[in-house]
Amino acid sequence: MTTPQRVWISQDAHQRLQAELDELRALLDRDAVDSGSTDENRIALQRARQARINHILDMLTHAVVGEDPPDDGVAEPGMVLTVRYDDTGDTETFLFASRAAEHGDIEIYSPQSPLGEALLGARTGEQRTYRTPAGATVPVTVLAAVPYSLHRSREGEPIGS
Fold it and tell me: Residue ranges of the Transcription elongation factor GreA/GreB C-terminal domain (predicted)?
């Protein structure tokens, strides 16, 4: 038996997920009043809502909420990474976190993505390679890795908003 993996999510994402969970539960409660219905669309919708509830509960149960990793320049969930794609020289900045929980103004890459798996544990200045779904090998260098809240405060956003 494997131990469920802890997932880093921001405080904002936690609040959004909790609000969505509350709304879905209210919709299921309302649907329970009409439980005698045999409408296939309604039943499919109820099953989809229950599946989403289960998914949210799983994320919230295993979430590390808003606890920034140390500011040590190591790529790990909860860090904002700036990387350079060495073949093109292009740079990109993104939040290293669960795509299922986060959304907002910054791009998100999951630690389970091909790029995420390659970068996990990389230090600032370190080059790693990853394989695209098409089979190409792409070299990428970590230019910066800072905790999410530190990045937000540098961007002028209040922490926790």
Answer: 72-144
